[in-house]
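User: Please predict the structure of the protein below. I'd like the answer in C-alpha cell form so I can feed it into my own downstream comparison script.

Assistant: Understood. Taking the following sequence of 168 residues as input:
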Amino acid sequence: MTLREILNIIFLFVLYLALQVLIVRNLVLFDVAFCFIYIGSILLLPYELSLTFTLLIAFSVGIVVDMFYNTLGMHAAATVLMAYIRPVVVRLQAAQRGFESRIIFSIHEMGTRNFLYYVFLLALIHHFALFFIEANNILLLLPTLAKIGASTVFTTVAIMLVQYFTRN
C-alpha cells in the first residue's frame, strides 16, 4: 500500500466520522430512518488489508461513534460484525460479477449497480445487528424491522451520494 492510499484512507475516516457526528447525527426521517454514514469508512477500505486490521479499524470507528451517541458499544459491535462478514460478501459478489484481482471499492471503479449491491447488503447487516441489539425485545419486532429497512435505504443513498461527489 502506498503513502497516497494510506492518506486517502485517513481522509475518508475523518470525512465520514465528521459527517456522522456533526451533520447526520441529527438527521432522522419520520422517527424511523436513521443515517449511519460512518460505515462507509469501513466499506471503502482496501480488500488487501488483513481481517484483523480491518476488525480493529471497525472497532475503533464504532467506539468513536458510541462515544458521541452514548450507546455503550452497540455501534462497535454492529460495525465489527459488518467488517467480519465483508470478505464473504466481497467473494460472493466477485464470483457472481467477475471482478478483477484487485478490487477498489468506489462507485467509479465497480459501477453503480455493483457498488449499490455491495453497500446495501453490508448496511443491511450492520443495521440488523444494531437495531436488534437496541430493541432487546421480541415484542418490538415490527418497529425494528421498519427501522432496519428505512435506515438501510437512507444510509445506502447517503453513501452513494458521497461517492458521487468525492473523487477517488
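That's the full C-alpha cell string. Helices lie at 3-23, 40-43, 51-69, 74-97, 107-110, 112-135, 141-165.
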